[in-house]
Amino acid sequence: MFSNVGGSALIDVNIIFEKSSIKEGDKIADLGCGRGGFFVFPAAKIVGKRGIVYAVDILKNVLSEIKRQAKEENLNNIVTIWSDLEIFGATQIDSNSLDIAFLINTLHQSKKKVEILRESIRMVKKEGKLLIVDWKKIAAPFGPPSETKVNKEALKIAAPKLGLHLEEEFEVGQYHFGLNFTKM
C-alpha cells in the first residue's frame, strides 16, 4: 500500500492503516502529527475528498509546513489545528466527531498522558477508534529515555475507566507497540 514514510523503517505505516480500517469519507485526526505529517498525507489520500484529516500539533512551524505541503499537493481535505492536547477541550475539533484518532509517538512526550487521552477520547465518536502507537518499554540504542516510555499494561488497565474497549494489541515494529481501542 504505502512505503514507509518519513525516512524511517521503525514503524510500519501499512500496519497502522490496516489496523485503523481507515476508509474513504472518514473524519480522522493525527494528534501530535509532528514534522512532516508522515501519517497525515497518506491518510488524506485514503479518505478522499469526502473525508477530512486533522493535523494537530503544538508546534506552529510544523503545522505551517504541513499546510504548505497540502496546498502544493492539492490536498484540500487536510486541516491543520494548533492545540495543546494536555488541556481538555482545547482542540478545535467537535466532541464525538472523529471516526478515528491517531496518537502515534505522542504519549511518551508528556507527563500528562491521562490528560492527552481524555482530550483524544473526547473527540472520537461512539464506536470510533483510537489507535495508539508508542515506544515499547525496552532498552533500545535510540529513542526516548525508558522512564518516559508508556507503560502499555497500565494503559490497557486504565482504558475501560476512560471509556475505551481494547479491540486489539499488535506489533508495529521492533521498538513500538500498537493498541487499537473502540470508544464505548
Rg calc: 15 Å
The fraction of residues in strands falls at: 25-35%
Q: Treating each run of at least 4 consecutive H or I residues as one helix, how many helices?
A: 5
CATH fold node name: Rossmann fold
Proportion of helical residues: 25-40%
Mass-distribution shape = globular
Distance between the termini: 30 Å
CATH class: Alpha Beta
Q: Uncertain runs with pLDDT below 50, 5 residues or more?
A: 1-7
* Mean pLDDT value: 92
Number of DSSP strands? 7
**Major sheet, described briefly?**
7 strands, mixed
- Spell out the CATH superfamily: Vaccinia Virus protein VP39
CATH architecture: 3-Layer(aba) Sandwich
Number of separate structural domains: 1
Category by helix and strand content: alpha/beta
Key phrases:
26% helix, 5 helices, disordered N terminus, seven-stranded mixed sheet, 184 residues, alpha/beta, 7 strands, Rossmann fold, 29% strand
What does this structure look like?
- The chain is of the alpha/beta class.
- The chain is 26% helix and 29% strand.
- It has a 7-stranded mixed sheet with strand order 3-2-1-4-5-7-6.
- The longest helix is centred in the middle third of the chain and has 13 residues, at 60-72.
- The model is unreliable at 1-7 (pLDDT under 50).
List the helices and strands and how they pair.
Elements (H helix, E strand, L loop, with lengths): L12 H8 L6 E5 L8 H8 L4 E6 L2 H13 L5 E5 L15 E7 L8 H11 E12 L16 H7 L5 E10 L2 E8 L1
Parallel strand pairs: 1-2, 1-4, 2-3, 4-5
Antiparallel strand pairs: 5-7, 6-7
